[in-house]
Amino acid sequence: MTRVPVRDDLQALEGYHSPQVSAAVRLNTNESPEPPPAAWRDALAAELARVEWHRYPDRSARDLREAIGALHGVPADQVFAANGSNEVLQTLLLTFAGPRRAVATFEPTYQLHGHIARLSGATVVEGERQGDFTLDLAAATRLLAEARPAVTFLCSPNNPTGLVEPEATVRALLDEVPGLLVVDEAYGQFAPWSALSLVEEDRPLVVTRTFSKTWSMAAARLGYLVGPAWLVTELERVTLPYHLDATKQIAGRLALGFVAEMETRVKQVVAERERITRTLQELPVDTWPSGANFILFRPRDRDGRAVWQGLLDRSVLVRDCSGWPRLSGCLRVTVGTPAENDAFLAALGDVLAGEGGRSA
Ligand code: PMP
């Protein structure tokens, strides 16, 4: 069979992989440890029974966007929804990046920002964070002045470091960006402040969010952005007709009727995050302050990969970042249920107490 070569600019690109390994305790993909409320599932089943399946869904997803807008105190025309916040990012990049345009990231950060930018044909300019993973504003300003990126990314809380970008940093970058500033807040509800408060019609700022984490709906694949209305209109150039199916529109709208339940889950996760952090501080590992539902840590004097394997041998799966650029030796653990977190801490204590994985 003759193979057809892929696009020239894709030859050097690999797909984005997040290995799905089976383990009793899965703390590797930053999902919510709890399912959505049973009342939400019942309400969804009841509405799905009334869907006219032979008809296309509402193309503009008006009801869903109105409900999201109401949550954030903005009109529906400042909201764009898509199949996961990854598709929101893709739509943004197809609209504002692309060939002969630059996209700026500050590494280490969420790998999909650079990856999707490259898929759009844009050139990615990687700024470096400081050793403690905070942003050096002077260096960032220089990079923006030199590269003139059409799109600049911040991720707050940042995946995989967990650090929250201070408001002053976001405001300062807003003064410097020559194009659009995208603040990815996939983990925004776990953090003490949100850039949503800075969104205005005449500011080139969008904030992206997801239903995958705090809303316990990773399986639904639903995300959105809040930004200026003119920008939301521009995105329509790129979106496929009826890109949001009826199930997703209903699922998202109904979820927004359970804000109090969501906030309770967030509080529990934050309390557990603090408990895990305190315990990690008593172990021979470095940690970073997290405003998210996960914690980055680095075993001292140990090979990160070997510790990851030791945890997996005890049926605890965390994310192995140890081979990623700038994250040598680091692992990332998602906050789970109290029982899962206990299992993780016990397994980690056990692995670190053993001789295996001690680096030379
Ligand atoms: N942004 C960040 C920072 C993430 O960590 C993730 C999920 N790993 C996403 C966006 C994408 O989430 P989703 O497509 O499920 O909304």
Report on this model:
It is a single chain. The chain is of the alpha/beta class and 360 residues long. Helix content is 36%, strand content 16%. The chain has 11 helices and 12 strands. It has helices at residues 38-48, 62-72, 84-96, 111-119, 137-147, 167-176, 229-235, 246-255, 259-281, 304-313, 338-353; strands at residues 25-27, 79-82, 102-107, 123-128, 151-155, 180-184, 205-210, 223-226, 285-287, 294-299, 316-320, 331-334. The strands form 2 sheets. The protein has a 7-stranded mixed sheet, sandwiched between helices. It is globular and about 60 Å long. Bound molecules: 4'-deoxy-4'-aminopyridoxal-5'-phosphate. 4'-deoxy-4'-aminopyridoxal-5'-phosphate binds next to helix 3.
